[in-house]
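Notebook entry, structure prediction.
Reason for the run: the old model in the group folder had no record of what sequence produced it. Starting over properly, with the input documented here first.
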Amino acid sequence: MTSCAAPDLGPHGLGASMRRGACPSLAAPMRTGDGLLVRLRPAVDGLTPAEIRALAVAAGAYGSGIIEITARGNLQIRGLTPESVPALAAAIWETGIAVAEGLAIETPPLAGFDPGEIADPRPLARALRLAISGAGETLSFAPKFTIVVDGGGCFNLTMLTADLRISALGGEDGIRWLLSLGGTARSAAPVALLEAGEVVPAVLDIMRSLSALGPAARARDLDAGGIRQRFSAGNALPFAGEGSPSPPPAGIHHFGGAGTVLGVGLAFAQTDAGSLIAFVRQAEELGAAEIRLVPRHGLFVLGLSGEAAAIAQGLARGHGFLVAADDPRNHIAACAGLACASTGMDTKATARLLVEAAPDLLDGSATVHLSGCPKGCAKPSPAPMTLIGAPSGYGLVVNGTASVAPSAYRDENGIRSAFAALNALVRENKDAGESAWSCLTRLGTAQIGAAFEQG
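New structure, fully documented this time:
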């Protein structure tokens, strides 16, 4: 379902769901340490530069001016108040930008553009939205229930978790769609291999089964084996997780006759309204026609020539954006930090310190997760290395989530030397051609923890 109308904010100006657990929206913002937060999912493939600028202007006028792009490619505006949220909603409505509501159905950021994709997933995604919307109240689903429709290509969605995954597979018999339950492309349970016309009825059937389990049910609660028998009669099914995961968005990406795409990343998932406005204005002057939000905290700029993309890349660097895949900041997942009342860490400052003191850790072989608290908002799934804010300083988790009990601790004053010790551990023990994380995995948790605590 999509909407260009101003949302109904209720008699008190805001919806009743100002809490964690549901996705924050214009009608139901989430309270955080720096005020209210709103998350927006544009209902179209991309926005014009003028529309991006209008959103940034509104973020500065009615919020703190801090803008984030999430790991799933949604836009967040921070620092709002109960009084300013209705004004923000009105400003967005006046731009005519369509904001998606309800069930999240996600497609790759370059769907329909990337000549390397197996199939354009957008027609199937539109058919699903229409069918699910038409089913109305007969279907219920959890607040964060997500469907991914992945047509493949360079910037695919194989690493995103979803309740239902629909992945294009090519073969001698043409294109078919693999339907899987829960997880990433690698971890999801395949249940059916379908022709395009069979996908919508199958998804509706599964969602009816979920509805029978209650409004909080997720796809992982279903019996995958039983559903597989229902659709595939015991036939062996392929896995869609064999493709290469998407690279970081930052960089200049050439797609042959389709054109050139400039990717820029938001350092530690954030930028400020002024920097975004200035960059987008300059990119538009160089010929940018469309901007798409990208998972892993980035933007794709379309419409630039190769020469113009190189110029725009330099301008983006000047505004503090990530512009290259080898920038070590690409490999740090940091939560909002001091902007959240729950934090025990200035994650942005810690991230900058990590880049300075431990560059050998950030070779791209693993993501380092910096979490201000055990909720782990920036990376709910396990990370090779997670640093958590704690009353006594910092806790280190190896191969786990932020909610796991740390295996090592360090006080605030010793964190630089702890990072330097981890960096030395890699530099002194890494074999030729070995990645940082392969080296640390070989050394083991005990040595990692000892270096962190004693370095």
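Summary: The longest strand covers residues 383-390.
The old model has been moved to the deprecated folder.
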